[in-house]
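Handout, page 2. Input:
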Amino acid sequence: MNIAVLLYDQLSSIRPLPFSLSDLLLVVYFHDIEKPWKYELREDGQLYYKPSMQTKEGHQQFRMAKLKSYGIVFTPEQENGMKYAEGELNDYSNRHRVMGPLACAAHMCDVCSARLWFNHPMENNDPWPGAKRIRD
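Output:
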């Protein structure tokens, strides 16, 4: 979410964005909500993927059903952001755009978090102001 704030501020200072920071934070916050339900602990202590969660489509179906059960309703743009925050996958087409602007920004945040700063915050002396690891 910190990346979303930084990215939103930088991009919107160059050209107005067609979505709000709140929309971006909403999508970034909820786009992986299935993770606590995605795994099951076996008797041998190993985690394994539940069969229904082994595809991105399965993740998306579970995610939207779970959020609906909590009474969370998305605008079409927010729903597109949720669907494509991890890329266009099998929906990619060079004939029409499926990922909307909000989804694009959420995807940029997701990729940055997962591939650029995957091991941050650093254990000690992280240069990002206020960044720290929380210990139990």
